[in-house]
Structures are given as C-alpha cells and as structure tokens.
Amino acid sequence: MDPVTIFIVATLMMLANGWVLGLMRKSFPVALRNCTETWRIATLLLAGSAVMYASRDQMPLGLASPLANGLVLLGCTGYWRALRQFYGLPDLRWMLAPAAVGILGILWFAVLRPDTRMRVVILSTCCVFLLLASFVLLVSQKSPDGAHSRRVMASLFAFVAGFTVFRAAYFLGRGISPSFDITGDGAWINMASPMITALLPVVGTTAFLLMCSERIGRQWELAASTDYLTGLPNRRTLVTVGERRFAERPQQASGLALAVIDIDHFKAINDCHGHEVGDVALRHVAVHLRTACRGSDLAARHGGEEFVVLWEGLDTTAALMAGERLRALVAGEPLNAGGVFIPMTISMGVAAANAGDHSFHDLLRRADEALYAAKAGGRNRVEQAKN
Fold first, then answer.
1. Where among 171, 194, 224 does a domain terminate?
2. pLDDT band at 292, cuts 50/70/90?
3. pTM of the full predicted structure?
4. Considering the chain, what is the average pLDDT of its residues?
C-alpha cells in the first residue's frame, strides 16, 4: 500500500469518527457536549490535513504544505482544548499561540524563504509542545473518573509525540531536499507517518468516548448513592454500609454506635419561612454533621428531616459524648436565611451495638426509639437507647 492510499484510508476513518461523534453529541450530558464537539472538530481538522497531504500533487507546494501542516497544528490544539473542557478547565489566552507561531513559520519557510529543514523543525516543535501539553494534563489528573481510558489516552499522546521527535530527527539526519514529499515512496517512514497520525483521531477518539462513558457511569453511581439536596449518602448507602459494618463487628476490637437525628420544629420552619428555607436548613445541619465526622464515620440523610450518623470505635459513653457535642454545635449556630437568623436545634437518639442486636436494623430501631424519647422529653437533647 502506497502512502497516498494510506492517507485516504486514514481520512475515511477520521471522517467516520467525526460523524459518529456528531451523532452521539446530543446523547451526552450537557456538561460533556462542549468537549465532545471540540474533539469532533479537531478530528475533522486532522482529516482535512490528510486530504491535503493526499492531494498535494494537485496543488502548489507552497500552498498544500502550509495548509496541511496548519490543520495538523489546529487539530492538536483542539484535542488539548477538548481535554481541558472535559476536566472543567478554562481556555488559556495563549492556547492558539503555538499553532499560530507554527503556521506563520511554515508559511515563511514555504513561500518567502523556502527551507524544508526549517519547516520540519517548526512543525515538529509545535506539534510536540501541543501533544505533551495534553499528556501532562492527563497524567496530572487525580480524579478516578475514566482512570483506565485516561492512561490509554496519555500513552497515545506520549507515543505520537515521541514518534514526531524521531521522525524529525530521521529526516534532518538524512538530509531533506526542497522537493521532499511526505507521500513519496522513498522512505519507510512515509508509510508510517499517516498511520501514526491516525492514532489520535481513531484510537484516541475511542479512548475519549470511554472517558466520557466512565464519567457518566460514575455520576449515575454517585446519584444512586447520594442525597441530591444535602450531598450526604442516602438511606440506601446507609443501610448497605451499616449492614456490612454490623456483620464485621464480631471480628473488630472496636465498637459500633449510631445516632438517629431529627431537626426540631422543622415543619414550623417550612410553614413560616417556606420550603426553600427548609431546604437550606437541611443543608445547614448536613454541613455540621459532615464537619463533625471522622474519617471512618458516616453521616447520611435517612429521609425528610431525619439524619443518621454511624460511628466506629465508640461505646455507649463515647457515643453519647459525641452526640452531645454535635447537638451543641448545631444549637450554637443559628441558620442564616438571607439575613434572617433562625434558631436551630436537633434531637438525637444514640445506640451502641450489643449482644441483643441481631442485625443493623435492630440497632437502628433502638436508636430511633431513643429519638422519640428525646423529642418527648422536650427536644434539643440526646437520649440513650435502652438495651
């Protein structure tokens, strides 16, 4: 297969990927649409460069080469920008500078002062900079979203950057004539160049789609386990974690305790100030619960105005002390609802696992009964569950 045919095949594959991305764009969440559109445009720019390389015999050398190289630089810039959008990073003011410098340099040494060696140096330098910028961005991310596909993507950028350096060194070492043609049959590297160039728009697009898919899956998983209003784990997560820790309790030297918490007079807050303020009150208490939790503790929204805190390593006495500190923390900071300060208190029932508990639900039930005792006793208090 000759280089021109390889460029044509690569072009068709790039165009197919761009078409698929265009079809899938609307099926992505809004947060991912900009980056997928940018990636699609970058892929089409590289497809356009492949067309220019394949048809350069039909165009003046001084026009075909700058056009093709310019599209490559803009495509690499587009991939870098798409990755920054994927991670929620803003555009850099100078983001187009490498491509602009490369295009102007290539035009100068193609039209005004023909020098094939300088064109190779400029194109390779600018491309490597853009490819390594994407590589550094990918490896610097610590988020678990798309970790496997991100590593594949980073490897692709590193490999293409390495090949670009090798290709430039190869041509400069052998010497380049003014009539140099990347589609010529004179060197094996002319065969390899279009295939390596196609890696990012073809294999890279697949990896990018996997990154998007893994993020969506993670978001769905998070949505299924998290209360949308407070950001705390929901009842489903609480029960899952609670049952697991209760089952592991016989093998642990430390104890297991929990508190069932209810916001006092929550209905009055809704009735007097509106449900929006009621939502703010729920988030207000959730922030205090999250702040008071240690690394292994779990604070969750149980439903309505009721919360649960699950403690590891606490016996009844220690759990009562932790509950009292939490009660005092909430009572000591009124809710600021648009400049209106509303006193906030909570009632709490605390239970520590004992031999009479046969399941996590037994422990939860005893704490819930203690909560009712706290409310009956005047609210804004902590009550211990009966054994």
1. 224
2. confident
3. 0.69
4. 83
